[in-house]
Structure formats: structure tokens, C-alpha cells
Amino acid sequence: MERTVDAGPDLATLAGAVGDATRIRMLELLMEGRSLVAKELAFGTGVSPATATVHLKRLEQARLIRSTRQGRNKVFRLATPTVARMVEALMTVAVRGPRASATPEPLRAARYCYDHLAGRLGMGITDALVRDGHLALRRRAFALTPSGEGWFEAFGIELAPLRDQRRQFAHRCLDWSERRDHLAGALGAALASRVFSLGWVERQPDSRGLRVTPSGQRGLRRHFGITP
């Protein structure tokens, strides 16, 4: 008599979807948070557009990415922040010993982790906010303190709309290169957007890496006491 296995998460399908070098590279490229067309993902993974289309269909069927129309183009992005956290967790597990030193320096210095700041820049900002008493560590998230409420508002970030979003407010995300938690969630995304709008960081071409501008260096020293 065959044993009945209780239905649960379909890990085999998920593993099959991400267990391919081209598809996992596509997910890495989409970790920058921007939408990309199939040709961009084909170029970034070194495959033909036709082959890229097959891989993208597989990822979409697994609900890891979603597509929308922008004019004549079909663009792709990660389906949810949860998928981004999964990819970041896989990167954390994958970094072992000597391989850590092979990580490109621009990514270790400053990068986007889906929609928030990571690398030494993200960790430096998070550490400064905790050090100055604006964030407090909790088991699974950061807590915004009363002083933090005032600080974020003064920095140009409205908190009420963030709390209305259907996502975690101040999630703790494990940084795969620094191996510690940085600020993510709605608050982390708003902080990254504000830093970008101030012109403190610029995107690196064809990379999740970020370049800190001269005005960013001054602003980061003044507001966070860090020198990137």
C-alpha cells in the first residue's frame, strides 16, 4: 500500500525553477528592483533571446517573476519582495570561504537588494540608525523609536503611507556579503528612494552596484557619520 504524503509547499517545482544557472542569473539581475525586457535579460545571461524567453516562461509559471506591458515591450520584474528575500538568502548560503573574496567590490561596497540599500553602504546606514537610537533591534524586525519617527520625517520620508502598505514595515534582511541584517521593508525602500532622489547614489551600468556621488559622501558623513 502506497503511503500518502500530505500536501504542502511544492519545493520540487521551486527547486526546478531556480536550479538552472541561467534562470538564477536572471533573478539576480532583477534583484536591482527595476523591470527589464527579455533582450536585456538575454544579454545579461549570455543566451539568445529565444532561449531567454523559454527561461522567463518557466520563472513566470513558478510565480517567481511577473510581466507587464509597457508600450510595445513586455517587461519582467520579481513577483514579490518575498522572492527577493529568497534570492538574497540563497546568495547568503552560497557565499563560503574563499568565494567571498571573489565577490565584485562594487557590489560589496554599495548595491540595491531589490528596493533597499545593501552592502557596506546599507549596513553603515543601518548601524548608524541603531547607534543613534532611531531604530531598535527586535527578533524579526527593526522597531522605529520615537526619535526615529522624528528623524525620518525630518529626512523627508512620510511614515503614515508606509504603514498602510501591505508589506512588512521595517524588515531585517540578512546581507549576503556582510552577513548581518540591514534595513529592508517599506521603510528601507523609502530610505533608499530618498537617498537616490537626493543624488547621493547613482546606478552602475549593467549592475546592481551603486556609486556614491561627491554630494552623497558629504551627506552620508553629515547625517550618518559614515565615509563610504
TrEMBL record:
Stretches the record annotates as Disordered: 209-228
Pfam families linked to this entry:
HTH_5 (PF01022)
Composition bias, Basic residues: 219-228
**Highest taxon in the source lineage:** Bacteria
Q: Which Gene3D superfamilies match?
A: Winged helix-like DNA-binding domain superfamily/Winged helix DNA-binding domain (1.10.10.10)
Can you give the residue ranges of the HTH arsR-type domain?
3-98
Which PANTHER family does this UniProt record tie to the protein?
Answer: TRANSCRIPTIONAL REGULATOR-RELATED (PTHR39168), TRANSCRIPTIONAL REGULATORY PROTEIN (PTHR39168:SF1)
Its recorded name reads Winged helix-turn-helix transcriptional regulator
Can you name the source organism? Corallococcus soli
